[in-house]
Structure formats: C-alpha cells, structure tokens
Specification:
homodimer, 249 residues, alpha+beta, 11 helices, globular
Chain lengths: 249, 249
C-alpha cells in the first residue's frame, strides 16, 4: 500500500476537544496562517479571511453562542469568513459601473474558499502533532457572532477551528461504507437506506464519544432522525441573513 | 522553523492543468477515497458525496459546461456534492413528523462538508506526488451538470477536482500579504484597498500564468475589477436553483 505519514495521519483523524493549557507558539501560528493563505482560491479572487481570536473575553463571549464550554479553552481559535467585502471595496474605489462582487456565484466561492482554507490549517496543524476540532457551533447565532467580530456587510462567518496540543486520545470513529457515499459517473439512489446502512449503524454503536463519557453513541440513522427532526431557527436563517448583509443570492 | 514535508508541499501548492496520460491506479484512488470519507463532517451527518467520473464521454460532456478542454484529460475527476438527500430519505423512511434535512443550516453544512473533503483529497494526492486542480467551472451551468450526474433533489454539486501525474511545472503564484487577510479578534476595514494592495499588485504582475503562455498576469485589483464587473447568470442563480431542488433556505 502506497501510503505515507500525512495520509496515515488523515486516516487517523479524530476531533480533539481537550488541549494542554499551553500556547502553540507564534512561529507555529505563523506557519498555519501561511498555509491558509497558500490554499487554492476560486478564480484567484481570495474571497476568504481569518479572524484569529486571542482575546480570552471574546472567546468567552463566543462560548455563549456555541454553548460548548471547551471552546474557551482552545489555545488557538480561528474563524474563517467568506469575504466578498474586500473585492466589493476594490470595485467601489474604481467606480465600476457594475459590481457583482457578492452574487450567488461569488458567495458560494467565498464559502468554499473559507472551508478549504480551514481544512488546510487542520492538516498542517495535525502534521505538527497538534489536535484540532471544527466548531460549527459558532454559527448557532450568526448575528451575534457577526457583531462580536465586527464583520462588515458582504461577509459571513463559515466555520471555526480550535487548535492546541492534545490532552486526550479519542477512539477512531467508524465511517459510512464507501459504496453509499461514492458513486461512479452518476448518483445512485438506494431503495432502502436503513437496510443499506445497517452494518454501519451497528459499527457506530460500538463507538464511545468522549463527550458523553462511557456512553455508546446511537446508530447513524437514529442520530439523523433525532438531529434533523428539529430545527434551530437562528441557524436555519443563514442565507436569509446573508441577503440582509448585501449578498444578492 | 518547525516545518515538515507536508507543510512544505502545502506552501508549494500550484494548480496542475497538464497531466501525464496514464492512470493513477485503483489502489491510489482507493486511498484518496478513504481519506475523503475520513474527513471531518458537521454533526457527524455525512452531508456530502462524491461522483467519480470514469466515463470519457461524460468527461467530454462536462467540458461543454466548463469550457476548459484540459478537464477531459484529467486522469481522475471527482465531483463533490452537498448531499442532503440521503438523510432526507432516512427521515422519510422513519415517517418523521418533521424533517429539516435540507434547511439553510444543513445546506451550508453540506457545502462545507463537500469542500473540506475536496481539500483533504487534494492534500493526500499532492503528498503522493500527484498534481491537482480545482474545477469551479463545472458550475458554469449547474442545471446541466445536475442532469448529467443524475443528482436527486436536495443535492447540489459544489466543487470538482482533477488529479493525475503532473506534466508541467508552473511558477508559484504570489499571495496577498497576511495583514490584509488575517485579523485579530475583529475584522479590520482599510481606508483604501488599492493603496493597501499596491505591493501585492506589483508582485502578481511578475507572475506568468501557464494558461496564457508567456503573458504576465494583471494586477490583483485589475483582475478583481475585470472579473467582478461581469456576471454569469447561470452561475449566479446557484441558490435559487437550490431552492427549486428542495432546499428550504
């Protein structure tokens, strides 16, 4: 098998939610940010930015949004932002007659630019022995987060990543079988997903989530039902909010 | 400087648009797909899927959408899809009274799941000496792509990646300076972006894009003006199309 250290590290990825309470150092932060900046970007338009949270008070305020206390203990916290403001300003300064810096196309690119940048930071951090976790929960109340970060119009927060030296060793979480997630040439619809996912459902129930110490997790299909039969209104209005903020989508 | 091979490879990332015309091998494809499947996923909900294009006729049809002839020569072509269909079916099979599998929150997660998965594949591929490029151009006409890939409702194509052994050595493209892209604790608005980006504008003009052999590229601010004063209607309607396809955003 033609593999290597980085691939082994990717195949062993686990979210880390408990870190040693020591800084990761400015040199390493610098490397992570250089990697972020080097990430591919749609049409070379650089439609993403990073807010690095170093102010503990601000972290504590973000915890009120995320409701995950461990966020406040992340030695580093980066928030990745779809940024269509910078290019909008460039057009405005040049008095362009037309300005499509924030249409649906460019907003999507801003989101994907932000996400792939985050994943590059994750991979770089893990290659240095750091432990990371994605904080989707910073979007529980996007309006409050936008206020806290003083984000201008035509920007939207997309994802956050917490980084530090790991202080826990979580179990590797089972994954869905490839045949239900990777298709050749066209999408494959299955007759019965409960049937198709039966084996994966069983495997997942053997997994222990460290967040709920010593409690096995539910099957995948049960988790899907429980999580997706409810809605968070403030999360669900993400694209409505984007419109309010100047996106023409 | 505490760096390593993967970080050096990330800092030296270039898009590769010309590949040796040899397959990358099923074993390697298998590794890349395992890495994709191991990528972090919002709330453990696995809201992304991959369509692997192996049919040359289909690649040729996708070129008609992307208008980039070299897409047809990519030894491997993966299209990453925001997939809120699978979980919607699980809820429907369970006769859930409420079903929020495809609201704005879950759609955003489907998009970010797809994007970070793509970046993981990119990093794994590059670590094996492969050359990759993102094809955002597959979204030039999303309706046609959806038809070609037979994507069901509550799914949207997000991004594509071409992979093969590189047959060119492009120059490293300059990047914006970090102080205009990374901010501490809150977003920083500059008074004059042309002024702020002057140095970067100059650096970029020293760069040669292999796509336009021996022609230097425009400054960043000029590119922004040229690209964003125009709009592609079929690209811009991405989120409208998502609504038509069952997303409640």
């Amino acid at each position: 098998m033609k593999t290597n250290k980085i691939i082994e590290s990717m195949l062993n990825h686990r979210s880390i939610r408990k870190w040693k309470q020591e800084p990761i150092g400015e040199e390493i932060v610098g490397i992570l940010l250089e990697v972020a900046n080097r990430t591919s970007t749609s049409n070379g338009l650089l439609q993403s930015s990073i807010i690095r949270i170093t102010d503990q008070k601000k972290k504590d305020q973000i915890v009120k949004i995320s409701k995950q206390a461990y966020l406040a203990t992340a030695p580093e916290l980066f928030i990745f932002v779809a940024d269509n403001f910078r290019n909008d300003r460039i057009l405005a300064e040049g008095n362009s007659a037309t300005n499509f810096a924030a249409d649906g196309d460019r907003f999507l690119q801003g989101i994907t630019d932000s996400a792939i940048m985050a994943q590059n930071v994750v991979n770089a951090a893990e290659s240095l022995g750091l432990g990371v976790v994605y904080f989707g929960s910073v979007l529980n109340e996007p309006r409050r987060l936008i206020e806290l970060l003083k984000l201008p119009e035509r920007t939207m927060p997309v994802i956050a990543v917490g980084i530090g030296y790991p202080d826990q060793e979580p179990q590797l979480k089972p994954r869905i079988h490839l045949e239900t997630r990777v298709f050749e040439n066209e999408y494959k619809v299955f007759d019965n997903y409960h049937e198709e996912l039966k084996e994966y459902d069983e495997e997942l129930q053997e997994y222990y989530d460290l967040r709920d110490a010593n409690r096995r997790v539910d099957s995948f299909t049960k988790q899907v039902k429980d999580k997706l039969s409810l809605q968070s209104e403030t999360r669900a209005e993400y694209f409505e909010l984007a419109k309010e903020r100047g996106y023409e989508i």
